[in-house]
Amino acid sequence: MCGMKYTVKQYAETLYSALKDCSTKEQKEIIARFLLTVRKNGDSPRLELIVRAFEKIYLKDNGLSMVDIEMAGAVPESMKKEIKSILGEGVVLFEKETPELLGGVRIMVNGELLIDASVKRQIDRMLS
Amino acid sequence: MAIEIVEKLKQEIEGFKKEIKAEKIGRVLEVGDGIAKISGLANVASQEMLVFETEAGEVSGIAFSLEEDFVGAIILGDHARIKEGDVVKPAGTVLSIQVGDELIGRVIDPLGNAQDGRGPVFSGKSKAVFAPVERVAPSVTARESVNTPLHTGIKAIDSMIPIGRGQRELIIGDRQIGKTSIAVDTIINQGRDKRYQTPICIYAAVGQKESKIAKIVATLKEAGAMEYTIVVSAPASSPASLWYLAPYAACAIGEYFMEKGQDALVIYDDLSKHAWSYRELSLLLRRPPGREAYPGDIFYLHARLLERAAKLNKALGGGSLTALPIIETQLGDVSAYIPTNVISITDGQIYLEPELFYKGTRPAVNAGLSVSRVGSAAQTKAVKKVSGKLRLELAQFRELAAFAQFASELDESTRKRLTRGQVLTELLKQPEMTPVPFEMQVVVIFAGTQGYFDDMEISEVGKIAASLLDYLEKMHRENIIDVIRESGELVKETEEKLHAAIREFKKIKT
Predict the structure, then answer these.
(1) Tell me, what DSSP letter sits at residue B477?
(2) What is the ipTM for the molecules in this complex?
(3) Would you state the torsion angle of the CA atoms of residues B213, B215, B219, B224, taken in this order, to the nearest 10 degrees?
(4) Going edge to edge, which strands form the sheet with A91-97?
(5) The pTM is what?
(6) B373 is catalytic
(7) If DSSP codes are grouped into helix, strand and coil, which group holds residue B86?
(8) From the candidates B8, B10, B14, B19, which should be mutated to test the interface with A, based on the most A CB atoms within 10 A?
């Protein structure tokens, strides 16, 4: 029994506008009721997609960008500062240590734009 | 030897340019059954190539559906290697296949990879030429009317349903009726037909058994036909995406030769399975199903493929691409969806009937329902002269034959017509893999229509015709056979010599 009455985008937009102008206490209730509605409509399998869409709307509306930085070791503070200065203040940074990159850095902006300056990528390109 | 390899590696590393760019990527949402749903890929174009970055290496795909929330892609390769969440990058190109003269004699898959175990097709010595698999057909002004014959070597076809270079002629019939045989015989005959340029033949095997494809390749090799043939193979075990691409890849190869000014022949065996594969991909991508569950653009699927067969005008080199699509009907139903679609696209059809097949008339060509819309405009003058009346006589014979079953006493002229019809039907029978060069066809049909076989036993006609051809080959090669072949005409002088020769033969043999 699959819902499909509302699209993922519609769910996310509704939740966002519902949560926007209310207090923290009310937020918890709204989220609980939202989850119940999703389950009632049979759209629980699509919750992950709804969360991703919600993230996107939230970031866009607040003029923020979500940046994932992956490096072989720890991400130095200087790099984080530099990215903040390039992209402006509205940047939410996530860092991850990925040793298989071997060196360099891989940056993903908003889950859509990828800048792959890792050593692994260059080697893969060379050997292909 | 080792030093050379090290040197080469050094060169590659030194010449390697570091390249960093920002790309709009996507992530796999769902994958399976040869298709994938991808989120992201904001700037991807329709039919653009995609690269799936998996743990086991890169897999290619094509962006098929651009929906609001996701991109539907077909996977050209092993979909088992792709996982949910894998990154997908746009390649910035459309699907192309590498073309060149090195393809001749090889068996490849629709992506250009060799399938015959003889190593890679292209050595990398000459510059790589890529032809896009999807392409717009030549315009009206780029074309010229079809004027050169393509001899199939099959008497029934070359006399009554002649095919020209640049034409599309559909071969349609039930299963196991001889459709592929006609196609293979046509390929073999191209090497034997000395009057015209030998076209490069491309056989696209869509969804067939690997054993059948192997058998066809072996047959062609034995007949020496692989020297001008390319086989594009998408066997039954390959994914539906490769079945879908095989005819287009074969067409792209044919276009390469056509644009060089050469003649090419492409055979699509068969388009029914091609339609099935497109239906499979469309249904998996949730496109709305139409009649018989085929998607709405099933006509466009075949129309854009077949329109690329053309005869180019002299300014563009005068090359041609002839297409022989094959359609399998169910229980002889030519009014089903896909058969009617393809019949309306092609310039004629060769209709094979099971009734004729079981009666012993093989090839089981129904001359009444078969048609060639190009017709005698692309028929050698000699063949045209002798087969002018052939179709009409056979049509009259068919009418009378049904009537004669019931009538007890027949008048002289009716009996004569019946005998003549039976003789001609016997003469048009032909075993598999024995294409007959056109000059021999002229002689046989001439003898038949002039009544030289009317006084013989019907069961003996075939054998006697064969020995007549043998006799003429041996005794009258230069003054009759070669004359017809070189001039393409049957002038009065040759005709008289032929009359004399046949009378001579009859005296000796009977």
Answers:
(1) I
(2) 0.71
(3) 60
(4) A91-97, A65-71, A104-109, A113-118, B22-24
(5) 0.88
(6) yes
(7) coil
(8) B19
